[in-house]
Structures are given as structure tokens and as C-alpha cells.
Amino acid sequence: MGEGIARVLADLAKTGESRYLNRLREQMKQPALEDESSLDFEDYVGDIHSHTKWSDGRATMLEMAQGAQALGYRYLGITDHSPRITVVHGLDAERLVAQSREMAEVQKQVDGVTLLQGIEVDILEDGALDLPDAVLEILDVVIASPHVKLRQEPAAMTARMMRAVSHPHVDVIGHPTGRRPGSREGATYDFEAVFKEAAKNHVALEIDTDPARMDLSPEMARMARDLGCDFVVDADAHAPAEFGYVPMGLWMARRAGIPKERILNFRSLDEITMAFE
Ligand SMILES: [Zn+2]
Ligand SMILES: [Zn+2]
To answer: Could you tell me the pTM of the whole model?
Structure first.
């Protein structure tokens, strides 16, 4: 062990902090330790964003439900893709009806975890959504996500996102920038205006914990927190093992200093149902 590291460890052991690490945090513009929130996976009640073989998931609805049940979740949002994304067999109204029949069957086979039928609906280029209002209205949860044309001009992208957060049936904005760390930068828009509007309309912003996304980042989530937004922390799981991403997402939310009351996944089934009404 190097002398420097030994000193940091000795400081940490003695005082619980290290001047060197505090200086690093400052230099890296990271929040101070005391500014982090305290969030525990033990208290996490359920995940609302997941996929099944109905679109691009790799597991059946039953397997996903059993995975959530094994973790002790009280609810799981089944939110497959909308039709626009043809490569992943997005669901139209007809297939959603068929899916709801399967859901009723699966629900009989799993105790404890309530399945919420939802959709991850595409935010189209002009900000309209990829399914008719009448369909969105009857679903338990609507996550609106930007997937394509993320390189729009900021003004057009802002108008697009403003329209999505103003839609009466949208509950959550999924992975709000669409970034893919290491390969693709996310969309650029007037984040402040859009996040403010989301807060006003009680539309939650997602911290998508898929390691390929990590979207929102802790820095942006902190900004959204300051603008009054609520959040969901979801695995966006495409297989049961991916539920395991959530603890990392909670770590990101802690870094962002988001208090537990602002994260919907810590709420009971009744409370979350009410929030998504
Ligand atoms: Zn998505
Ligand atoms: Zn998804």
C-alpha cells in the first residue's frame, strides 16, 4: 500500500473523512458527502419499467414476475415498447389487449407482486406519442421515452420534450436524455424548462439504471431535484437478472442528493397507483 493511500485510510478510520478525498470531490465538482441522501434497497418497493418477450425482452412475463417476486417487490410495471419501434415488435392496441389477457393469467400464478400494465411509448419527432390517447388512458403506467432522432436541434428537441411532459397521460419520462455513455451523447434541449414543466405536471423523471444508459446522470438528476421533480429509479430490465441494476441506480440517486420522498419506487402500491392515475 502506498504512503498516500495509507494516510487517506488512516484519516478515514480516525475521523470518518479525508481532506484529500474532500478536495478531490471539490475538484471533480462532486457533491459533498453530507449532501448525499440516504436510500436503502431494503425499502425499495417495486420497479415500474421492464420488458418481456412481447417486445425486446429476453424473458416471458411470468419469468419477469417471478424475478420481481423473488426480490420481494410489491409491484412491477410491464412496459413493453410502442409500435414505432418495429424491430422490437412494439405493441399496438390489439396486442396490448392480448397482453392484458396473459397478464391476468400470470397474476394468478404470482402472489405478493402486483403487475401493472404499461407501455414505454415513443416520443415522436414532433413530441406526439406513438399510441392514441384512448389507449394510453386505460394503461396503469405510461413511460414516454425518446429513442430516435436524438440529434434534433435543441429548439426542436425542447419543443418535442415540452409536448411530452405536458401530455395528460404521461406518468414518467424514460431515460430523459437517451445518452449511451461511451458511445452516444444524449439529446440537448432546454433541460431547465422541460424539468420545470415536468415538476409542474407531476411527471416523474427516470434514473434508468441500465449500465449502458445511467440516464439521468447524478449531475442532471441533482439539477432536476432543485427544480422540484419527482423520480423513478428503474432497471429497465430485459431479463430478471437485470433487476440487479437497481442498487447502482440508488447509489446514483444518493449522489444526486434525492430524498426518499421524491422517489416513487419507495411508495406503496396504493400510493403509486394514485400517482399514476
Ligand atoms: Zn427505452
Ligand atoms: Zn425500456
So the answer is: 0.89
